[in-house]
Design a protein that fits this description.
Blueprint: H1 7-13, H2 15-28, H3 35-47, E1 52-56, H4 59-69, E2 77-81, H5 86-94, E3 98-102, H6 113-122, E4 126-132, H7 141-150, E5 155-158, E6 166-167, E7 170-171, E8 178-182, E9 196-200, H8 203-212, E10 217-219, E11 222-223, H9 234-243, H10 247-265, E12 271-272, E13 280-281, E14 287-291, H11 296-305, H12 334-340, E15 343-346, H13 354-368
Parallel strand pairs: 2-3, 2-4, 4-5, 5-8
Antiparallel strand pairs: 1-9, 6-7, 6-13, 8-9, 10-11, 12-14, 14-15
Helix pairs in contact: 2-9, 3-9, 4-5, 4-8, 6-7, 10-13
The chain binds pyridoxal-5'-phosphate (PLP).
Length: 369
């Protein structure tokens, strides 16, 4: 069986170095917020061309910490999209703020600047925008920031699926006021447990976020405001420092697989390929095809019977989910809803072998033959 995602293979590829890093932490006698975390923060900031990075416990906390540092809370609204990990929305609501959904562009699956404009026109209380670079595709940041600037509100980048992605020559996460990352094991840069980070070039925001991550402490045991406990532990930081130097290579591997999929499927009527936005580097956290004519589920079953795992990211748009029925539908979400019945994520990770990719390609071709 070729799994749709297979984080065990990412560990297997660097087993000896990871074991050595874990041993080092075990022997150090220091397990939370020490040298490993500081070292990783420095390297990850540099990787993203960003002056400041803070390691946190997971990607959900990362979004929450940025929003809270911007003083967003009860009585405020935050705009995002309805086709993201529930985590994005959960983080917004945990600040006490309400969420509102903008529609997406169906080609790249990311926030539509026009829809955002309609939303900001209609909802005067929106205080921030959380853009999601979904599946590794950079959102149209220039247009989105132009719209947000008109309303004088900050844009936050949820980069949980976009480590290393580039937009017009800049790293995703370094374009808006701050960027959040998740190191969940299947992400492009994955820990062997939970982990996350925030990056920013704003010093005041950095200091506030660093305090928020640990009870609002400015000095040990002394809180200046109420914070949370969200720390990246030394073990995960050490593991991430082993993997970070190979992130570009891993992303190149994903892109090479994506190129093979594209070449193989571009002439199949019934498949719409994911857009590669101009002047961007897509990092293919997922390779998501759109299957036309109501055949998505049939293709998924066919592939499963051929020993190939697939997934749907995500099976139900957030605005349709039971937990979010309280969110008013301010603008139409036509593209969010249309693509939802068509999307299918094929296996995508750099450890997939050439033979496996060929097997996947011939199975998909076989279905449409
Ligand atoms: C994975 C993910 C998150 C949440 O990250 P966790 O580390 O699981 O909390 C947030 N946003 C997006 C878009 C994600 O894919």
């Amino acid at each position: 069986m070729i799994l749709q995602a297979d984080p065990g293979r990412s560990f297997a590829a660097r087993k000896a170095e990871i074991r050595a890093a874990v041993e080092r932490v075990l022997d150090s006698g220091w397990y939370i917020l020490g040298n490993e975390n500081r070292f990783f923060e420095e390297k990850f900031a540099a990787y993203n061309d960003s002056p400041y990075c803070i390691g946190v416990a997971n990607g959900t906390d990362a979004v929450e910490i940025i929003l809270r540092a911007l003083d967003i809370g009860p009585g405020d609204l935050v705009a995002t999209v309805g086709n993201t990990a529930v985590a994005t929305v959960s983080a917004i609501e945990r600040t006490g703020a309400g969420v509102r959904f903008a529609d997406i562009e169906s080609g790249r699956f990311t926030m539509s600047p026009d829809s955002l404009k309609s939303l900001l026109d209609a909802e005067k209380n929106i205080k921030a925008v959380v853009v999601v670079h979904l599946f590794g595709a950079p959102a149209d940041m220039e247009k989105i920031i132009n719209v947000a600037d008109e309303y004088k509100i900050p844009v936050i980048e949820d980069c949980a699926q976009a480590h290393g992605a580039m937009y017009h020559g800049r790293k995703c996460g370094s374009i808006g006021i701050a960027g959040s990352f998740s190191f969940y094991p299947t992400k492009n840069l994955g820990a062997l447990g939970d982990g996350g980070a925030v990056i920013t070039s704003n010093r005041d925001l950095y200091e506030k976020m660093a305090a928020l991550r640990q009870y609002g402490w400015v000095k040990r045991y002394i809180s200046e405001f109420s914070g949370i406990n969200s720390r990246l532990d030394e073990m995960q930081a050490a593991i991430l420092s082993v993997k970070l130097p190979f992130l570009d290579e891993a992303n190149a591997g994903r892109r090479a697989i994506a190129a093979k999929y594209r070449e193989a499927f571009c002439h199949i009527p019934g498949i719409i390929l994911p857009e590669e936005p101009d002047n961007c580097q897509h990092v293919y956290h997922q390779f998501v095809i759109r299957v036309q004519n109501g055949k998505r589920d049939e293709l998924a079953v066919f592939l499963k019977n051929s020993g190939i795992g697939t997934a749907v990211h995500y099976p139900e748009p957030i605005p349709c989910q039971k937990a979010y029925q309280h969110v008013p539908a301010t603008v139409a979400l036509n593209h969010t809803l249309t693509v939802n019945d068509e999307i299918l994520s094929l296996p995508m990770y750099p450890e997939l072998s050439g033979c496996e990719v060929e097997r996947i390609i011939s199975a998909v071709r076989g279905f449409f033959a």
